[in-house]
Amino acid sequence: MTKSLRTQLAGAVAICALLPLAAHAETLVVFGPSSWDTFAPGAPEEVVQEVTDELDARFMEAHPEVTEITHDSRGTIADGLARLRNAQLAGDQVDVVVCAANPVNTSYARLGLIDPVGDVVEGMGDVFTEGSVENFTIDGTVWGVPISAVNLTTFFYNKEVFDAAGIEEPTTYEEFVAAVPALEEQGVIPVVHQGKNAWMWPLYYMSSLAQTTGNDQLGQVESVLAGEGSFTDPESLEALQLTWGWVEDGLLDPQSNELDENQMKSVFYSGRAAAYFGGSWDVPAVEVNAPFEWGVFKFPKYEDQPGEPVAFGGAESGLCISSTSPNKELAAAYIEFAASDDQLGLLLDPLTPLATSHVAMEGASDPIAEDLRSYLPADKFLDWVWPRELTTTIQNEVQSMMGGTITPEEAAENMQAKFDEMVEAGWPEE
Question: Hey, which of 51, 113, 146, 246 would disulfide with 357, CB 3.0 to 4.6 Å?
């Protein structure tokens, strides 16, 4: 073999060795752990596709080194964690993760599936609304860049039923309890709930805990998780007792444990229930299906508690950098581009949001949206802070308590026993 031929072959080998890197540099993979983890989540499929294609085209025009962007969003929310982990373990290319705030807080960061993005957020300046970045922050580290409509917990109520009973929307729990006889005279259940959906029950407990702790519910949860506090502490136990009070005082129908979401809404739409506790994510459905004038009101104030009423929620969707990405700088550039003010109309307009994660886009201007915006800033859902396995126990214990099969004291003891069991088994795992 001549020297010239050896030189040519060596060069060819060198070029081949670089080809995989070049392919990575030109291809970006945006991974959605579930079918909900897309741009404009909840919009019709064709709208999601149009929005995604347009965003990618704009990014590739600004970054000509990128020749292909692929998207992989499928599966159920429940299977999202396993799908992301399996893709990374299999060595599949995953660069950007479309990430919901819940698994970011409970799983993705703790398990090392994503990288911190504080530098990206800091470089974007003051573009985010209060609380939005905090929803993706754990112990001071930012793990996701929010780009999201804002959702909030709220009561929905039938204004016509309230008017017939001669009552106003309550601002205090005591006012609501006082209205029970007038509602019952109308043959109406005061409050109905989607009891079969166990994840909805802790909303009452969270909302009560905010008030019993003087609005330091997050501090109380962190104290329990650090082993310094307990679910049987006075503030936590009193929150469970107040939650049970909704049934004991005649506000919440105990038969609600037999209803799923559709059945609950059917009771509400038929006028057989005056109100239900849900979230602003229900607004589109109520607008379409309620055959009466309706409104919203915030979780009421317990007069004897130190804290003020809060709404839980805020920005729920964002973008994360996969810890296994071979193109982390490019992934960061894509995230910063997508979350910039210039892309807000494209990505969020299809959702008709009441509010958003960005200062530059306030949200809808209708009276309901304006009412809901008065609740802001929202507080972080506590089931984004509790470990997933503990959350399941809390959901089941509150559900059983509201069904009358256990007492608040037993619920508190069972919740603490589950956490103690987790710690003994090695939680948190390294």
Answer: 146
Tell me if 137 sits within 8 A of 151, measured CB to CB.
Answer: no
Q: How far apart are CA 316 and CA 306, in angstroms?
A: 28
pTM: 0.89
Q: Give tens-digit pLDDT for 52-85.
A: 999 999 999 999 999 999 999 999 998 999 999 9
Domain 16-149+316-373, architecture per CATH = 3-Layer(aba) Sandwich (3.40)
User: Is the separation of the CB atoms in 336 and 124 below 8 Å?
Assistant: yes
- 213 token code pair: 């702790």
SS3 assignment, position 387: coil
- Spatial distance between the Cα atoms of 244 and 248, rounded to a whole number of angstroms: 6
CA separation for the pair 63, 4 (Å, rounded):
38
Structure tokens at 164: 């017939």
Query: What radius of gyration, in Å, describes the C-alpha atoms of the chain?
Result: 25
Q: How far is CA 427 from the centre of its chain?
A: 24
Domain ranges of the chain: 16-149+316-373, 151-312+387-424
- Tell me the C-alpha distance between 396 and 409, whole Å: 14
The dihedral over CA atoms of 177, 179, 184, 185, expressed in degrees to the nearest 10, equals: 150
Comparing 16-149+316-373 with 151-312+387-424, is the CATH topology the same?
yes
CA distance 254 to 192: 8
Sign of CA dihedral 201, 205, 206, 208: positive
CATH code: domain 151-312+387-424 is 3.40.190.10
Closest CA to 214 of 299, 309, 306: 306
